[in-house]
Design brief:
The protein is mainly alpha-helical. Helix content is 66%, strand content 5%. It is built from 9 helices and 6 strands; from the N terminus they run ααααααααββαββββ. The strands form 3 sheets. It has a two-stranded antiparallel sheet with strand order 1-2. A two-stranded antiparallel sheet has the order 3-4. A two-stranded antiparallel ribbon has the order 5-6.
């Protein structure tokens, strides 16, 4: 089989998934940034290989039961080495980037980082083992990496949201979840396969493979639901010129007419790029937060009008 065909077979699943996730993003990210994230993620395969070699060497000398060794290697060696590398590659390039301003952005960044890794890994496997491996990995391994990334990116964006709104504990918790959840999913995915490979009982192998298929299907379904839900309910995090953080949703604010004549629902004009015009500044009577829109960016209370009941601000 020609090497060019195998290369295409290895790269096609990642390319297809990248195009899909990019299409789901209503507020497109700069292509230059996404390419950088992709290749940064690809580079993490080097650090992952080094960490896995060290971790497996330690397990070889510390654990003698093959099934236990397979279980531990999946959860404490392979999954952390790969997922933490992808996370760090994404965070270095995006956390303080001005383009990280929508909830869905984190999912896009994580998927590009993860599929950079998966694409390189897939090329190595397919070029070495042939078409059969390419087909199996196209249906399971590469989409699996994308699924881990969607959960990573979802919690990563929530951490950014919490950071912008000054919720330090929520930022910490979501940052940890952005690392832990993909590690657990990746570890379970690998553990079921690796333990089944080490098992000598046919019934156990069959049971573990069934469990792996059920997990894979459940993960795919959960990922699709999360992508659709997040894309439909995407919202923007804005830092205004006076450094006031305002979190708002275009869907909550309704349509607006741009000076160019285009009617928009999103917070930027799809024709000329102008921002949604701000209403006057006001202070929330419930929490004292300075806001610019029709609801408080901190507690969510609607903008007070002259007919609204006054809600006393709680005493500190």
């Amino acid at each position: 089989m020609g090497s060019q065909f195998l290369m295409i077979l290895a790269l096609l699943p990642a390319i297809g998934l990248l195009i899909t996730i990019y299409a789901c993003d209503r507020n497109k990210e700069p292509k230059k940034l996404l390419v950088g994230i992709f290749f940064m993620g690809m580079g993490t395969i080097v650090s992952a290989m080094i960490l896995e070699l060290i971790g497996m060497a330690i397990l070889e000398n510390a654990v003698y039961d093959d099934m236990l060794k397979a279980l531990l290697s999946a959860f404490i060696v392979v999954a952390p080495a790969e997922e933490l590398g992808k996370f760090l590659a994404m965070r270095v390039l995006t956390w303080k980037n001005k383009n990280f301003d929508y909830l869905f952005d984190g999912i896009v960044y994580a998927v590009f980082s993860s599929l950079g890794f998966a694409a390189f890994e897939n090329v190595l496997y397919v070029m070495q083992n042939g078409v059969g491996t390419g087909i199996v990995r196209a249906l399971a391994s590469v989409p699996g990496h994308a699924c881990f990334a969607v959960f990573m990116g979802y919690f990563y964006s929530r951490a950014k949201h919490a950071s912008v709104t000054g919720k330090k504990m929520s930022c910490l918790v979501n940052t940890l979840l952005a690392m832990i959840v993909p590690i657990v999913l990746h570890g379970a995915y690998d553990a079921l396969l690796m333990v089944a490979e080490e098992s000598y009982e046919d019934s156990m192998q069959i049971g573990l493979m069934i469990a792996w298929i059920v997990m894979l299907v459940g993960m795919f379904v959960g990922t699709i639901i999360l992508i659709v839900k997040t894309s439909r309910n995407d919202f923007r995090i804005v830092i205004l010129e006076d450094n006031t953080p305002v979190v708002y949703s275009g869907r909550m604010l309704g349509n607006w007419n741009c000076t160019c004549g285009r009617v928009n629902i999103s917070n930027y004009c799809t024709n000329c790029g102008n921002k949604r015009p701000m209403v006057e500044r006001w202070t929330c009577s419930r929490c004292g937060y300075l806001s610019y829109w029709n609801f408080c960016g901190k507690c969510g209370s609607p903008k007070q009008t002259m007919y609204s009941p006054v809600v006393n601000r709680p005493m500190n």
